[in-house]
Amino acid sequence: MRQAHVTRNTLETQISVKVDLDGTGKATLDTDIPFLDHMLDQVARHGMIDLEVAAKGDLHIDAHHTVEDIGITLGQAFTQAIGDKKGLRRYGHAYVPLDEALSRVVVDFSGRPGMEFNVAFVRARIGEFDVDLINEFFQGFVNHAMVTLHIDNLSGRNAHHQAETVFKAFGRALRMAMESDSRSAGIIPSTKGSL
Ligand SMILES: [Mn+2]
């Protein structure tokens, strides 16, 4: 069963993340950051991941610690749930459009963290949400899921659309990478023999 439940408590945030990587795309989200809930819902739906995230953070300061720590905790849950990576496709990619916006996300369950984040948001905020935090979320995830992640927004004139295409493409790319490849059942997808 590719499932995990991780809790992470600091003086800044208290976070619980449950994942089922072979789910049906069902999300239960309670982060007190509505835009982030909307984005995590996209990851669950398009990744076909069952996802429960509950977070209490120091939002009286700003959303920075909470968003970053949710990324970290989600990454830890993925590392636990993905297991030994035998038979894993390993690589996944997706292009997702939303009207004028288009993003591409490419992921590799490489076993080491690396991120290229190329998104020039056209606005600094989406509602009350600071778009800088999207980079923080993904960096937290990458560091703890131990994946290589390339995120490129290729076009967009609306910051909500830019963000939404990034998160949907992330979900789709994860889904592809996390699926099992029947031709390589029981085999680690690396000539090194480990990932
Ligand atoms: Mn939307």
Strand count, sense and barrel status of the largest sheet are: 4 strands, mixed
CATH level 4 superfamily: Imidazole glycerol phosphate dehydratase, domain 1
**H/E topology pattern:** EEEHEHEEEEEHEH
- Spatial order of the strands forming the largest sheet: 1-2-4-3
Ligands bound, unique: manganese (II) ion
CATH topology: Ribosomal Protein S5, domain 2
Compute the average pLDDT.
97
Gyration radius (Cα, Å) is 16 Å
**Share of helix, binned:** 25-40%
Query: Strand pairing plus helix content: what structural class?
Result: alpha+beta
Low-confidence runs of at least 5 consecutive residues: none
CATH C-level name: Alpha Beta
Number of strands: 10
Number of helices: 4
Shape: globular
Beta fraction: 25-35%
Number of domains: 1
